[in-house]
């Protein structure tokens, strides 16, 4: 230890001793403020002022050390223990931390999630209000946090990969607002126990293969809640377990460093050298930070005395990083005990004040809303003394409630409306209730989707134009020509996935395009759907326009977690602050057998609220959907028809201009007797059935919904139903899946039940997976006979 101050002094290079000393004392202060935040934060929960707390106590020293090397342009993708790093980097104030702990919905107080996320979930904006990327190179960036363990891993890979593309892709050289020649490092943090997740291993492997500037910091406090390392990690040490990934001179791989979470000088030294190397070489690294403590246990939900023995608890007290920092400062004569005491007292005071300000700012608006509601209730005029007394009682109850929340206001107003009864002059009361309802809706229910200028909902339809001699070519050739033009036109676009690069995807959509547009624009990945999605998320957050491919829709399940937890919730959980314009490309519905015919659309639309779900029936329509999404900053999944690549389609002459308006169905065939609602491959089978029905004088109106999310926003299906009075919803999902969703939309949301002459139906696939072979397909998926017979039955009812 004796030489440590000399080492750090040297390593700080140009720093004068005074600067060095100030730097150390500043770090000590930030550590103390952060610790005090954790201590007071826990108290706020235990006294009922906040609902749940999770804090970064014990990890302070490692994080002030790491933050020294976090530069503008860099990205952090971490988890809920990183408050100290965030404070040290100037991304959040202690007051904002408390505002989040209280769930303050005002974005001026809590700019990361507007009270929607629990404590320690930070965010930086990446697009401006007009939808243009911000100069990300000038700010310290944070991919907004998530609670699922290791969920930050897949996107970390993409955030780091972006640097590699910016450094190597010739077309991106001029993107100097987004990258400084790929010098940006992604700082990823993870707990020791969360390294047990597959996400961690898939990411580390991919980073070792790709050679991207990813720095993974593992906070090793020995536990995942109560479960110790011996049940989590082979050999009880993640750095030992990772040994085979270690890079040698003649291989790719990762660098591995181990440091101690109480050794300030040691960590500063290793982090500085390690991060410099990552920045320069793009060789990823793991920093295994061992011997970290957790003074208050995992969260406010329990106490760690339940699972740590006396010896461990004593060890945690002895090796607490704040105690160690103080000892080190004193041993090295950097400051005196008295000087440190001043810093300690100052830190406590600052946190106390920040907490009080955050609380005041949080409760004052609620108090005002309460007093307004009380006034409105009190001033409601009723003729009946009983009703009058009841209203006064409700008002008083609300006024006297010391832990009042907004839900109590709504409850009181609702009680008051009913107490006032119909005869009263209760208009003001009712109006106020409705106004507040609307206001709270904007507070708590807005921004599931982009509400700004860059929303895909603003894109209008542009129809394809066909020249007189337009050739009819295979579907895969249409999409191939489209992608070719797209790469030439939009340099932010990159496409990748299994077999996407060299052979140009299994159905040749990208055939020849790697050769033509370069290996940094169209490229292969390993078989790793989870991190293919993560790759796409990270690239999109950094301002690129990734098309990330899932080879078959059946395998989306492997990559679904980052889509449902990260992409789909992104707008909502940041209240529109962060955008992730990712396009997931896949292909599905019918072809062959149990894992190549899937159409799990119910699963998709239920798990991906917050993304657009586009279901083209052919490749011209698919191209139009890519264009629509690319004109916006919204994420989407576009599911092409597996059996559509070899069907002939006429080639439009305006492939790059065509667009689809999302949520606007297309009437494929007009008819009078029955409305058939569907999408994708099934439409071709419906056409066959409709032709046969036509011979029985039954006229079918066939509607392609085009997109499932959003769904028929102008209620055009209802208009059709008003004409036909009969409706059937057809798709290839299981019973109760997406067809039931469409049914619900039209019957309940559009009020379609009022226009029915016969019971509406859904025709779906069987509940089992589809059997192999053409007969397997016929008897597993809806077929023309099913549709014909169901409709005949409906006509005879
Ligand atoms: C996917 C998932 N599984 C379980 C949980 C519940 N959970 C939250 S934190 C945690 C332990 C994480 O331990 P570790 O990674 O060591 O981080 P630490 O909290 O110790 O810093 C668990 C099991 C979760 N959030 N996400
Ligand atoms: Mg842990």
TrEMBL record:
Q: Which GO terms describe its biological process?
A: branched-chain amino acid catabolic process; response to nutrient
What function does this protein fulfil?
E1 component of the 2-oxoglutarate dehydrogenase (OGDH) complex which catalyzes the decarboxylation of 2-oxoglutarate, the first step in the conversion of 2-oxoglutarate to succinyl-CoA and CO(2).
Spell out the Gene3D superfamilies in the cross-references: 3.40.50.920, 3.40.50.970
List its EC numbers.
1.2.4.4
InterPro entries hit by this protein = DH_E1, THDP-binding, Transketo_C/PFOR_II, Transketolase-like_Pyr-bd, Transketolase_C
Q: What is this protein called?
A: 3-methyl-2-oxobutanoate dehydrogenase (2-methylpropanoyl-transferring)
PANTHER family linked to this entry: 2-OXOISOVALERATE DEHYDROGENASE SUBUNIT BETA, MITOCHONDRIAL, 2-OXOISOVALERATE DEHYDROGENASE SUBUNIT BETA-RELATED
Q: What keywords tag this UniProt record?
A: Oxidoreductase, Thiamine pyrophosphate
Q: Name one GO molecular function term.
A: branched-chain 2-oxo acid dehydrogenase activity
Q: Which residues form the Transketolase-like pyrimidine-binding domain?
A: 473-647
